[in-house]
Amino acid sequence: MRKFLAMIAAVAALTFTACNGSSQQAGDGTQSEIANFEDLKALLTEKLAAGDATAVEEVLQKVQVYVQDLISGEKMEEAKKYVEQLKQFISENKATIQNVTGNSATVNGFLEKVEAMPTDALDAFTSAATGLQDAAAGAVEDAQDAVEGAVEDAQQAVEGAVEDAQKAAEDAANQAVDDAKAKVAEGIDNAADATKKKLGL
Question: How much is the pTM?
Answer without folding.
Answer: 0.51
